[in-house]
Amino acid sequence: MTPNPESTQCMEAPEASKHHFRFHLPFAHLFSVFGDDWFALKAEAFARFFGTPVFLISQTIIVLVWIAMNAMGQAKFDVYPFILLNLAFSLQAAYAAPLILLAQTRQADRDRVHSEADAMHREALAQASEQRELFSSAQNDQLIELMKQNTQLTEITKQLSERIEQLTVEIHLKFMTKPL
Fold first, then answer.
1. In whole angstroms, how large is the CA radius of gyration of the chain?
2. 3-state SS, residue 85
3. What gap in Å lies between CA 141 and CA 14, rounded to an integer?
4. What is the C-alpha to C-alpha distance for residues 35 and 8, in angstroms, rounded to an integer?
5. Which residues contact 31 (CB under 8 A, 6 or more apart)?
6. Measured torsion, CA atoms of residues 170, 174, 175, 177, in degrees rounded to the nearest 10
7. pTM over 0.85
8. Is 164 buried (19+), middle (13-18) or exposed (0-12) by CB count in 10 A?
9. Helix or strand (DSSP H, E) at 107
10. CA 148 to CA 152: how far, in whole Å?
11. Cα–Cα nearest to 22, from 110, 113, 117
12. Angle, CA 10 vertex, CA 8 and CA 15 arms, to 5°
């Protein structure tokens, strides 16, 4: 008796589905292009923080307080035309651009790796489907062969039954025609 591939797949499926990113594991070493060291992780987190509403609102409040304090004369560390504020924005832009590019590059690499893993998963599903089709086709062929054999046996049984009936009739006729 040949093993049923579907039954073995069903037994393996719970083990395989324990880790739903199993197709991503071969690419795990590619997830972070710039490494997983402290600086790379913090730089990416900081770059991601640049686009959040919290950062934008905080920066706006700081700039407004900065300008208000210096314009009203409460502080004299950066009087109009706010050269120090301009320098701070330039410094922020000088660091923000590379950090944002770093985050985008890392995200693009993660997206590419996930795409490759998804493609592998789709290929594995296609192969499993093809195997199921082949198995189903083989089962259908076996079923057709069994039906043919059953039809032949039924015909043989019918012929034997007819022959038995003929012999029974002949025997009855012989006994009926013989004098006692």
1. 41
2. helix
3. 31
4. 40
5. 109, 110, 113
6. 130
7. no
8. exposed
9. helix 83-177
10. 6
11. 117
12. 100
- Under the banding of pLDDT at 50, 70 and 90, the label for residue 67 is confident
User: Which residues have C-beta within 8 Å of that of residue 134, sequence separation ≥ 6?
Assistant: none
In whole angstroms, what is the distance from residue 30 CA to residue 106 CA? 9
Quote the DSSP letter at residue 102. Answer: H
32, amino acid identity? S
Residue 13 has pLDDT above 60, yes or no: no
Tokens of 59: 């920066």
Give dist(CA 74, CA 96) in Å, integer. Answer: 30
* Contact residues for 176 (Cβ-Cβ < 8 A; gap 6+): none
d(CA 31, CA 129): 30
Q: Judge whether 115 and 65 are in contact, CB under 8 Å.
A: no
Calculate the alpha carbon distances from 172 to 21, 37, 164 in Å: 80, 102, 12
Place of tokens 């770059």: 47
What single DSSP character describes residue 78? Answer: S
